[in-house]
Amino acid sequence: MAVFIGAGALAVAGFAGMGTASADPIICQVSNGHNVIHVDGNGGCGANAGPGSTARAEDRSGGGTAVASSNTGGNANALNLQPGAAALSGAITGGTGYAVTTGPGGMSVAQARAGGTSVAIAGWGGTAYSGPYGAQCTGSFAAAVDTNTGQGCIGAGGIWLSTPR
Fold first, then answer.
1. In this predicted structure, what is the pLDDT of residue 22?
2. Residue 95: alpha-carbon gap to chain centroid
């Protein structure tokens, strides 16, 4: 699967193929005013969708967390691929959020709003944030972009690139 945002601002290919997953996936998927929580062993997911909204959260690690929450036409997506990591996605007012963790200890947070798209991807020990406060990346590997603020960042180790604040 490939995700293309804006006019090629960020292309993230192979969400499902990133990282290693040894457990059966735990999937929480809801729409239009429903919510669900699933816990299996040390892994879990939760999804909440208000009227006219969709939310999908999936933990493929068996030891991490994925949470998606949307409202007012939002579309939130969270995917965790590693133990000890968390992917959190929120979307409101027609926004679309994607939060993905690909490495242990990673934390990704995407907060989409007002028809925009927010993407946050965190690798091993990385933290990625995209939302109303722009984009912030720290740790071993992280990438993020928020179309409403026009900010983005990407980096690994000691090499980081980001838009001015």
1. 54
2. 13
> Coil, strand or helix: which one is 57?
strand
Burial tier of 111 (Cβ tally within 10 Å: 0-12, 13-18, 19+):
buried
pTM of the model: 0.86
First and final C-alpha spacing in the chain: 31
Radius of gyration of the chain (CA): 14
* Contact indicator for 94, 74 with CB cutoff of 8 Å: yes
Token pair for residue 121?
């991807």
At 157 the pLDDT is 84
Is the distance from CB of 43 to CB of 65 less than 8 angstroms?
yes
3-state secondary structure the chain: CEEEECCCCEEEECHHHCCCCCCCCEEEEEECCEEEEEEECCEEEEEEECCCCEEEEEECCCCCEEEEEEECCCEEEEEECCCCCEEEEEEECCCEEEEEECCCCCEEEEEECCCCEEEEEECCCCEEEEECCEEEEECCEEEEEECCCCEEEEEECCEEEECCC
